[in-house]
Amino acid sequence: MDISSIIITVIFIAVCTIPFVLMGRKNKKRKKEKLQSIINIANQQNATISKSEVLSDYVIGMDEVKKQVFFFKNLKDSAIEDYVDLAEIKTSRVKNTGRAITYNNSNQSIIEKLELVFIPLDKNRKEIAWEFFNSDDNSQLSGELQSAEEWSNRINESLRN
Known about the structure:
By secondary structure, the protein is of the alpha+beta class. The protein has helices at residues 3-44, 144-160; strands at residues 51-54, 58-63, 68-74, 79-85, 89-103, 106-120, 128-134.
């Protein structure tokens, strides 16, 4: 192999890999910005995020010492910022709203909305629901169901301790 072939090969490899490197950096930056959103919410409550998860359009985090959960979700023209003090919560659950359809002689379940719901200790208070997925905003689930179930389990475990 002569020098010109090596140079052309190196340039070709660089041109092919640069877009992936740039996309990775951009995604890492977005994830960091989203995580900073719940850190800011936690700071307002004098809390520290000890566990967190960043998905496509929302971030959820928890201060395990103060037993508070924080949520941030980007919407098209606004954002949702919220927190829940688990001292005021009886339990949490995943609310899966959907519909059933028949396709090729088998019943299929379609998820239209997925929420993490907090049931308060005070029965006069309204349930708090954080929307993890809405089919009006996203056409496909991308880990939201597993995330909601995992956070519900984590929160309920924290409530038992």
